[in-house]
């Protein structure tokens, strides 16, 4: 079971507007992978600025997927400009737009990476392997050239917050205004809304904002960062990674909203309980079970369901819904009383030992 990561961050673009927080994004994410999840330096490839060409990004992504085997876990993080163009292959049935990310050598004559390009690679992920994708970029057709996204509480008035959206040139943008109706053809990176065979079956997708919004390149706590990546890493550190993807998403959204950002990050998961499992890893094996307890939002996942089933099999009235709510806590407390354990409502080593032996 190998772990591999490709982290791409572009501040210094060739011929288009520069950004300031993308290097900090990939540095922050690299630190999370190493300190919280046990990735080594050899597991992580970092590509920045002039080395982050379209060819280099696609080559490294293809290589990572091509050598993947069942049980492997992969991460792709892109921090930089994003945009949209009119769909040309008939797979965008919802808004007729292809979303794209902008490499260092971005140009409007096919010098970009489409959602279709990524989808073609992601389809080759072998069954039993998993890729977690992070796109801290804008894909908004309604974004302005200098979006006013508000300013977080930590930001100084001397450091403006700017959009990561790159508006297409006029001849490209007019395609969105019905100049090419014959081309009409489901939203780009948000694969869960796609038609046809596109899906997130073998990958998980985090987006820094909704498809009709922009992602902020913001001055936070003394440095520029992508606002989404900053708060993702902040909450990963605070929890040590022991938090479900769904709960983490809610915390990130609350932090962005509290600090004045309008962007609403999105999460699209593969089948099963991927959204209820911990981020940046496969579900933990039984011998490293996480503590289960009542929190807000409620903890969710296969481990909660396994606990509930074991309690039901032991004669307690509880349904296995995979949600650790107030009723589950009370049943755990009753189990602890019945087995002379510390009564705190927390399912830890004592509860697991008594339940599973």
TrEMBL record:
- Example GO biological process: proteolysis
State the InterPro entries in the record. Caspase-like_dom_sf (IPR029030), Metacaspase (IPR050452), Pept_C14_caspase (IPR011600), Peptidoglycan-bd-like (IPR002477), PGBD-like_sf (IPR036365), PGBDSf (IPR036366)
Q: Known Gene3D superfamilies for this protein?
A: 3.40.50.12660, PGBD-like superfamily/PGBD
Q: Which Pfam families match?
A: Peptidase_C14, PG_binding_1
Identify the residues that the record assigns to the Peptidase C14 caspase domain, covering every copy.
3-269
- GO cellular component terms, semicolon-separated: cytoplasm
Q: Where is the Peptidoglycan binding-like domain?
A: 300-355
The GO molecular function terms of this record are: cysteine-type endopeptidase activity
The record's annotation in PANTHER family points to: METACASPASE-1, METACASPASE-4
Q: What is this protein called?
A: Uncharacterized protein
